[in-house]
């Protein structure tokens, strides 16, 4: 931001938006929510019988 707007770094204050959820959270929660989570539906128990969801071996 400092370089783009030609402002000294010590004059820049950045604040993260509190309402933004990162893409890993939303992609990880989608399979659960599509089967009725947080309610313990029969489909949720059948397709996700554990508490671990591996979304990609390369990010573990």
Automatic annotation (TrEMBL):
Domain Aminoacyl-tRNA synthetase class Ia: 9-59
A biological process from GO: valyl-tRNA aminoacylation
Top enzyme class: ligase
GO molecular function: ATP binding; valine-tRNA ligase activity
EC numbers for this chain: 6.1.1.9
Keyword list, A-Z: Aminoacyl-tRNA synthetase, ATP-binding, Ligase, Nucleotide-binding, Protein biosynthesis
InterPro entries from the UniProt entry: aa-tRNA-synth_Ia, Rossmann-like_a/b/a_fold, Valyl-tRNA_ligase
Annotated GO CC locations: cytosol
Pfam families: tRNA-synt_1
Superkingdom of source: Eukaryota
UniProt record similarity statement: Belongs to the class-I aminoacyl-tRNA synthetase family.
PANTHER family membership: VALINE--TRNA LIGASE (PTHR11946:SF109), VALYL-TRNA SYNTHETASES (PTHR11946)
The protein, known as: valine--tRNA ligase
Protein's organism: Rotaria socialis
């Amino acid at each position: 931001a400092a370089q783009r707007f030609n402002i000294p770094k010590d004059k820049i204050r950045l604040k993260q938006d509190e309402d933004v959820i990162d893409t890993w959270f939303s992609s990880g929660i989608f399979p659960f929510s599509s089967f009725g989570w947080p309610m313990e539906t029969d489909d949720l128990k059948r397709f996700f019988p554990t508490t671990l969801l591996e979304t990609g071996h390369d990010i573990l």
